[in-house]
Write a structure and sequence with these properties.
There is one protein chain. With 423 residues, the chain is α/β, with parallel strands linked by helices. The protein has helices spanning 12-27, 31-37, 86-102, 123-136, 156-170, 194-210, 226-237, 260-270, 286-290, 329-337, 345-348, 351-365, 371-396, 400-419; strands at 42-51, 57-68, 74-81, 108-115, 146-150, 218-222, 241-247, 250-253, 282-284, 296-299, 318-320, 341-343. It folds into 2 domains: 40-185, Leucine Dehydrogenase, chain A, domain 1 (Rossmann fold); 194-348, Rossmann fold (3-Layer(aba) Sandwich). Residues 1-7 have low confidence and may be disordered. The strands form 2 sheets. Strands 9-8-7-6-10-11-12 form a 7-stranded mixed β-sheet, with helices on both faces. The termini are far apart. It is built from 14 helices and 12 strands.
Length: 423
């Protein structure tokens, strides 16, 4: 097996701007519009103290960034991770703008995060940090202004704490201030699996387009959090064979196919896959996992996983980006030249924000849909979005990513032109 070559991580915001520039050139956007859309509209950095369980005080750094709110309230997750920095949050906010526009839901792009390893905090410390952060960013968030959601390192419980904090400030319950909440406090059915469901739908549509039998396809999933595990389970349910998955503890490979439901139960009980065993299992690194023989590769971990250093060793025929920004522009060029079909992040993982939109609407009107209705609505939107992007890619002979950006950037630019510049 090939040795994985490390490459210095590229700046995610610079990557996001490069991707925007390609679409802006194709669309012939004028200089003024490029200036508006190439940078975030507003950024908030907060540094706040939290009393830890031992009585000591620790100061945390957090961010909330709005890239663009021309098409509606800002929408985007909150990430808890040690590597969070302002450029990562800027990039994620920009990608959210394009993602929302691509699936044509009335949101702008936002993102937030705290520089922290949540696994190192007790439940009480995590709650106190979350509530204080919610208070710090409360001047930005609200059902009509900015609606956070879970992301890497955050979950439904954390969204419930944020909702409760804002509700306590307001003096009444505000269910629509966040999405991704538990069902018992007005969350939406189908939200937990939504991003993974979108990934699985676009993987199936890509295979169909390329004439690949899903029943005969081997799939590899990097990352086994909410997105990765749901993607693996749903792709397997659709008939493909999951031959490898990975998390922070490394990669788990079985050419005969993995028992994904058992792995999900194990990870839920142990907070990772470390120590998991099953007959025929082989251990590989996260880098080696990306280079395994397969038809479908789903990078569902973090940014900068497929780069110019390893792109020529990727053996998958289809890459479906469950994570945001897992493939660098240099890797894009190599993979496109090799004929690898990439379903870009702003399309592939848009299922999460789509069902977040459904949850927000349900929260505002206090009327809820069944899980079957949610999944049917999501499938229609994902298939429609995939088809429209594929049509442009084939017509203009460009990668699917470029086609997706052209659709999304045009929608935001058109809305900006129609609204005009205030005052």
């Amino acid at each position: 097996m090939a040795t994985f070559v490390e490459e210095k991580a590229e700046n995610p915001f610079e990557i996001a701007q490069q991707q925007f520039d390609i679409a802006a050139d194709i669309l012939n956007l004028d200089h003024g519009m490029r200036q508006i859309l190439r940078v975030p509209q507003r950024e908030l950095t907060v540094r706040f103290p939290v009393t830890m369980d031992d009585g000591s005080v620790r100061v945390f750094t957090g961010y909330r960034v709005h890239h663009n709110i021309t098409r509606g309230p800002a929408k985007g997750g909150i990430r808890y991770h040690p590597a969070v920095d302002i450029d990562e949050v800027r990039a994620l906010a920009m990608w959210m703008s394009w993602k929302c526009a691509l699936v044509n839901i009335p949101y702008g792009g936002a993102k937030g995060g705290i520089v922290v390893d949540p696994k190192q905090l007790s439940t009480h410390e995590l709650e106190h940090m979350t509530r204080r952060f919610a208070s710090e960013i409360s001047l930005l968030i609200g059902p009509e202004k900015d609606i956070p959601a879970p992301d890497v390192g955050t979950n439904a419980q954390i969204m419930a704490w944020i909702m409760d904090t804002i509700s306590m400030h307001r003096g009444y319950t505000v269910p629509a201030v966040v999405t991704g909440k538990p069902i018992d406090v007005f969350g939406s059915l189908g939200r937990t699996d939504a991003t993974g469901r979108g990934v699985s739908i676009t993987a199936r549509e890509a295979a169909k387009h390329l004439g690949i039998s899903f029943a005969d396809a081997r799939a590899v999933v990097q990352g086994f959090g909410n997105v990765g595990s749901a993607s693996a389970a749903l792709i397997q349910k659709m008939g493909a064979k999951i031959v490898a998955v990975s998390d922070v503890s490394g990669g788990y490979y079985n050419p005969q196919g993995l028992d994904v439901p058992t792995m999900m139960r194990y990870a839920a009980q142990n907070r990772s896959l470390e120590g998991y065993k099953e007959p025929g299992l082989e251990h590989v690194t996260n880098g080696e996992l990306l280079e395994l023989e397969c038809e479908i590769l789903v990078p569902a971990a973090l940014e900068n996983q497929i780069t110019g250093a390893n792109a020529d060793r990727i053996k998958a025929r289809i890459i479906v980006e469950g994570a945001n920004g897992p493939t660098t522009p240099s890797a894009d060029e190599i993979l496109y030249d090799r004929g690898v079909f990439i379903v870009p992040d702003i399309l592939a993982n848009a299922g999460g924000v789509t069902v977040s939109y459904f949850e927000w609407v349900q929260g505002l009107q206090e009327f809820f849909w069944s899980e079957e209705e949610i999944n049917e609505r999501l499938e229609r939107i994902m298939i429609r979005s995939f088809s429209s992007v594929l049509e442009i890619a084939l017509r203009d002979r460009v990668p699917l990513r470029t086609a997706a950006y052209v659709v999304a950037v045009k929608r935001v630019a058109d809305a900006t032109l129609i609204r005009g510049i205030y005052p």
